[in-house]
Amino acid sequence: MPISATFQRALYPQLDTIASHFGTPFHIYDEAGIRQTCRGLKKAFAGIEEFKEYFAVKALPNPSILQIMREEGFGFDCSSVTELVMSRELGARGQDIMYTSNNTSSREFHLAQEQGGCILNLDDIALLDKVPQLPRQICFRYNPGNSRRGNEIIGTPEEAKYGVSRDQIVDAYRRAKKGGVERFGIHTMLASNELNYTYMVQTSHMLLNLAEEIEEALGLRFDFINIGGGLGIPYRPEDAPFDLKSMAAEITSQFLEYKQRRGYMPALYMESGRYMTGPHGVLVTRAINRKEIYRTYIGVDACMTALMRPAMYGAYHHIDVLGKESGAPQEVVDVVGSLCENNDKFAIQRQLPVIDDGDILIIQDTGAHGHAMGFNYNGKLRPQELILRENGSVEMIRRAETEDDYFRTLQFDRNVLEL
Ligand SMILES: *Cc1c(COP(=O)(O)O)cnc(C)c1O
Predict the structure, then answer these.
(1) pTM of the predicted model, to two decimals?
(2) Which atom of ligand 1 is nearest to the CA of 187?
(3) What is the pLDDT of residue 152?
(4) Cα–Cα distance between 58 and 274 in angstroms, integer?
(5) How far apart (Å, rounded) are the C-alpha atoms in residues 255 and 247?
(6) What domains sit in the chain, N to C, each tagged with a CATH number?
(7) Pairing with 226, which of 46, 235, 292, 379 sits 20 to 30 Å away (CA)?
(8) In whole angstroms, what is the distance from residue 291 CA to residue 1 CA?
(9) Which of 37, 98, 192 most suits a substitution to test ligand 1, by most atoms within 8 Å of the C-beta?
(10) Tell me, what's the pLDDT at 160?
């Protein structure tokens, strides 16, 4: 999807200057756009007595971005020790952090329960016996099995490794209650990049029904219902944007009905990643080679270590060529990186303006699961991250990796176990 008109207006006229100053490639994020999306989300759920978004840190794990989320009143959804450390460095404690891991180690639990703890979202009933100390408040991740479909990113629930099954879920809360847990939440996360808002409405409905069933069976009360993340963004120009307003309106009426039936309204939590930052980032890269064989290949100075979604999911990312936005002659090309894998392609048989060496390409919607999914295969290095501030300045918020970074984990001092 072409980036927002305001991001484009602020970015494109300055892009040559930014690229010469910082060098290419880089991801650049739009602070104003991120804040606007944060505020839109809160506004949409204003009818819920207590609404909170826990930004899924894995989507864009950079402290400068997390600071924005914190200023907007959001918490953090963490699934690793480094994400936990980063969130705490920003001052998040206790109820500000939801720890949603899978296959959790005891080291992770120990760290999660330090420094004021966090909300533990348990992924398996057996973990109840493995938590170093049973906290006062607990949440389980629910996996509804074949009663719901999933999607390609997460897999169908029945085949997905996440969560507590339908057969186990009531028992999980029974055992937690018996063990002394006093406060409860329930969570699920079934799909990612889902553009159909009714899917999320069904998820909320499913969790509220289940919460009610568990409340009646066990005589407890749910503090919160967490419907996960998974809201989609329109990557393709023909995709319709996610209908946040309709989703929020329908979920809000479910919560109001719940209150009528049960006399109270649980809090509603979400942990969106992609929806919050995805459209507010782009990968800027320069064309460096043009190759004409059976197809025409435009080689750029970024590769899939900067953005692996196209290779991993066959994902579409819209591409603009700076200064050639409209009216320029077109051709069909593959846009490729330098990694020795043939799926290192940002676009396949895409009609684009004719690209010359030195042209700047803007690969769009890289603000979530973009830089964060980067890797070092083939000795390739991850690019820098920049942010376009609301005042129009551009700040580097992560430098590019260097060869020295890559070699740092090699062991030069002798470390041998003689057997
Ligand atoms: C990845 C993830 C999210 C965020 O998913 P999006 O599709 O980016 O909204 C939220 N919760 C959990 C548990 C996740 O693993």
Answers:
(1) 0.96
(2) 13
(3) 66
(4) 10
(5) 12
(6) 31-277 (3.20.20.10), 278-397 (2.40.37.10)
(7) 235
(8) 27
(9) 192
(10) 86
